[in-house]
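Thread: quick sanity check before group meeting

JM: Hey all, I'm pulling together slides for Thursday and realized we never actually wrote out the predicted structure for the chain we discussed last week. Dropping the sequence here so it's in one place. If anyone has concerns about the input, flag it before I start.
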Amino acid sequence: MPCVCLNTYVKAVGAGAVAALPTDTVWGLAAAPAHSSRLYALKQRSLDKSLILMGANAAALWSYVMVDAAQWQTITDSHWPGQLTLVVPASPQVPLAMHPHTPDTIGVRVPAHPVARQVLALTGPLATTSANLSGQATLTSIEQVFEQFPNVYGLDNSAIRALLGQATGHKIRMPVPSGLPSTVARWQSNNWEVLRQGTVYL
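JM (edit): ok, ran it. Output follows.
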């Protein structure tokens, strides 16, 4: 699928299409939560591995989680946007297709990437996963994403310029994903338990 303008990209995601999404960690694949099954099929991903719900900010994700408001605000104010995924009790608003084997919890994150956050502000929270076939190396460029997943939607240069607030004609300097995994922490026994240590330390 060729790169498209922002309006077409957002409409396609809303209609259930899978899109390439740059984040602060890796290139991702994203879909509306109700269409999460398409991500599993595209990646050949096992259903026992949940997807991550990304939002433009903590407030956008609040209705999808069931945690103490004070604890939620304390950790999200400190570490979001950023490379921290929180595994928390899920509200009924999370479609079962996102976490078929772990229906009680969901991983959520606000990425520190200007394009991703502005896209998420337009689409609402999206189900996401790294852009690679399950078990294979992560992809480091949009060209690699399109080579492996030719039917996903991507943003064209004009869309990226607009999202980055750059005037037409300027060289595009979209932040490059770090390639490093996010820290993953789970709410457990009234505390945060680190499941995977990444760049964020709690």
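AS: nice. The mean pLDDT is 93. The chain has one domain: 3-196.
JM: adding both to the slides.
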